[in-house]
Amino acid sequence: MCLxxxxxxxxxxxxxxxxxxxxxxxxxASAMLSEAGYRQRRDSRELVMVDPDNxxxxxxxxxxDIAVYVGQGTxxxxxxxxxxxxxxxxxxxxxxxxGFAPSTFRFxxxxxxxxxxxxxxxxxxxxxxxxxxxxxxxxxxxxxxxVRLDGAxxxxxxxxxxxxxxxxxxxxxxxxAAGMEIFGDPILKSEAVLIRRSGxxxxxxxxxxxxxxxxxxxxxxxxxxxxVLMDYDIRKDLVEDAAALTPGLESxxxxxxxxxxxxxxxxxxxxxxxxxxMDELYDLGARAILVSSIHACRI
Length: 299
Hints:
Helices cover 27% and strands 32% of the residues. With 299 residues, the chain is an alpha/beta fold. It is globular.
């Protein structure tokens, strides 16, 4: 009979996570995973890295390929762009928006040539996201020829390959330099997202619990980035007014002070509103107003 020693760890399947290996998604994704308590690679040439403390294995892949690996069930979850997920047209779904790498997918054409998507009927459209664009046009009943290009899409019109383009737009300066302008409504607003195979739930290989932990940790990072802790002292008769300024996620913590007429209040407040709230609290009568960063949390 085999005895299990107290210090022996039960052998369970490791959670397999796809992480972007380069591009705008890579550094931010690794930074977020590090903040969530996971080990990350130190050498950009590493393709696989194991974090035994968290029973997780990271695979560093091209961002465009991540949805394919996850959709096929080769890997359990992955971090990629929403635009890349939808363009891949695979059996994968978005679990959690991650709040970094925002981008907007839009139409652009020669200045003055187009004002709306309906004018693209019968035209040639160049893009690096042909799957996403075909779906968008089909939903609106627009028949156009989609030309798939891997890069430098903005040059396609000048070179006679296309009449207009659909591409990720940030500042628009590149388009202006190519003699083009944006037109129509945005096709898609994208950002980095955590994805998994559609309907899998992680149960197929026993990693459902690890996926839930990963999601909670990433949610904790998002909250820690968006909020700060605010502490202040205020007279008892002003607590209700102060709580209206700092309601917290549920309610603020109120503690007695040595002076029975005063209390100490602690609450989470949105980071971007910190200074406005401090000013309003001070005008109300609060004093000793302190702000602290949140390094980790579970909500």
